[in-house]
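Hi L.,

You mentioned the student needs an example of a multi-chain input paired with its predicted structure. This one should do, with 795 residues in total across all chains.
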Amino acid sequence: MADQASDFIRQSQAMAEQSWSQWMRYLQQAAGQTASPLTGFGMPGMAGMAGMPGMPGMAAPGAPMGDMLERSLAGIAPYLEWMQRAASAQATVPGTDWQAAMKELFGAAGQPFTQAFGGIDSTAAQGFVQQWQAWLEAAGQAGMTDWLTPPHLPGFGLHREHHAKQQSLMAAMMESAAQQRRYQALILKANTQGLERLQDKLADHVEPGRQLDSLKALYDLWVDAAEDAYAEIALSDEFREVYGAMVNAQMRERQLVQEHLEDLCRQLGLPTRSEVDSLGRRLQEVRRELRAAAAGQVAAELAALREELRVLKASRPTADGVPAKPVSADRPKAKATRTKTSARKATSAKARPSKVKSTAAKSAPAVEPSARAEGTVASKPKPKPKPKPKPKKVEAEASGKGGRPRPSARPRRAAAAKSVPGARRSMVSPGIPAPHRARRK
Amino acid sequence: MDTPLRIDPAEALAEINRFQRKLAAGLRHLPGMGEPEYANTPRELVYAEDKLKVWHFTGTRPTARTPVLIVYALVNTVWMTDLQADRSLVRNLLEQGEDVYLIDWGYPDGADRWLTLDDYLNGYLDRCVDAVRHRHGLDAINLLGICQGGVFSLCYTAMHPDKVKNLVTMVTPVDFHTPDNMLSHWVQQLDVDRFVDVMGNIPAALMNWVYLTLKPLRLNQQKYIGLVEILDNPAELENFLRMERWIFDSPDQAGEAFRQFIKDFYQGNKLVRHDLSIGGRPVDLGLIQQPVLNIYAQQDHLVPPDASRALGKHIGTQDYTEIAFKGGHIGIYVSGRAQREVPPAIHRWLRARD
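Structure written out for the whole complex:
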């Protein structure tokens, strides 16, 4: 038995030598030899992935393939490390204090999975602001804390505005860092509570026959426990408040940084984000106005055409040569309308591009010209005839009850009144057992 | 003292060995693996405007008289509906006899920063619907809205009732204030105006980060540990990578539309408070009289079932059907069960109303 144990430790140490970094070195070499495209996955910037300038976690364009792979697989490395530690932790030996061992494996500061939780706040959400904060923290460690948290000093003279902006930015950075710490404290709390939940869950497995027999099973149980704890905290009122405060503080900080940079750009004669945004906004407003104007014109044209058609129909002689119905009262109006319509048509045809015109000529006028002018409509080679309208047939659904024909739009009060105990409402759950099915009452 | 662990040291060692071997063998497969392709069911472009495209799926002769236009969410890409040959909603709907169209919203950039919900719904979507109606010479077509696209479809139907014949919503949030809605919970105290003013368009990477933090350990770590088990299986590995491509190849969000969506839906919950208007038009679910099929996922962590089921309480139509799918937000499109259950159920329901 003793030999077996010492063999195990020896083998475990040998295993540890085949560490993650060795695998990665091997793969770097392999990737360098093949120089082939490397499939990546996961979220850039997640746990364990060092940030690159500009975008945390993004690999530089010239990064070696192995480096990219290491980033992609960063989530696996802590697991491998943990397995090796768990295998030699003696937590599995009967008689040992397994609860203390679990704390060691899952709760100790610096253990591999702390990063998985702690790392969720360190990605694209922050960008360069995070780097700025890192710089500030470094400055603080260098003894510049007095400068970082100065009492508010009123500014004077030519540089008054610049001075005030700098102070606002510093205050926003401090605020953002403070909110970040509150958030991290909650994440840490989730980690701690996850461990407590794991111990509760493990307590259910003490009985012989229910014991866990693999490291993966232990890991999966920990994930369940930690996710449960995290979900409970993430749905708490405290988390909601902290989360909102953290994001708002980050945005305030980022806003001031942007203003700072825009000031600089203006001084250098460079265009700024605000200017581009203003142009974009104006352009979009103009597009809306154009579209609305075109739609109004089309609507007027359509109404005029309808009127013209009505008049034509009414004035068409019947078999006995008599107009279908007296139109004398309408005639003068109809003439005027028709003239107006023709003028509109000519104007409208002129305004439209020829491509649109030909499309419109070929196909039924269901799409407004304004829409065609916006986009490209592929005409269908053989337009289908419009189906003859027929009374709506409502078949019985799962409820087995007959439906009613769909009424036209009704006042909401009436709709609400009818929507109570539905005649034809049903809840169907195909493929799931009967208890999951329920009929709406 | 009894221990809940019965892990033989030698077995633990063997387990680590197996893991390392699998990892080593599998990692050799990764270099050189190309970008996994989506199903790419044959399709033709029938309408394009700015960055959006409307695709018509071809290859089979539809038996349905009324075409169905799929309205996807602005987040992620539409190719979840046509992920791979044996996991494709559109392919299955085609096989059932439906005539399927799909709006691909494209990837917004700075030029789209000022697009509002009005621009999306009463502009883009309306013109897409018109394009399909026009092709078929129909007054009204069927809409199939997915997630946020389901919300859009509901709003559109309320604003343009004459153009929609039947409405199918899938994993669609309606009540945004159910207690288990984590996303909603997190944005309640967000200063959305400042957020959008500062960020402009909302980067896809940020959106993905938020989704991953809904289940940080499962989605950032456990999933990739599970990957090691399939690294030596090329077919499964390709499926995994295809899904990774879909998850992370996602569009940015147009800033103004995002601002409105968060304020009116997530924060204001105006859809169920009957207090919503888009582009000056009131949006009242109580006025929707079209037949509605509402499909939700029982294990949906993004759109909790109660958030979807709320539609039944607020919709005006008497022809309302709910289907509960045993699966999650994504599984409803790509799981084996989904292929067997969801498209046939949609087709049966539509056929009865065609």
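You could point out the following to them. The first helix of chain A runs from residue 2 to 17. Chain A has a mean pLDDT of 65.

Best wishes,
N.
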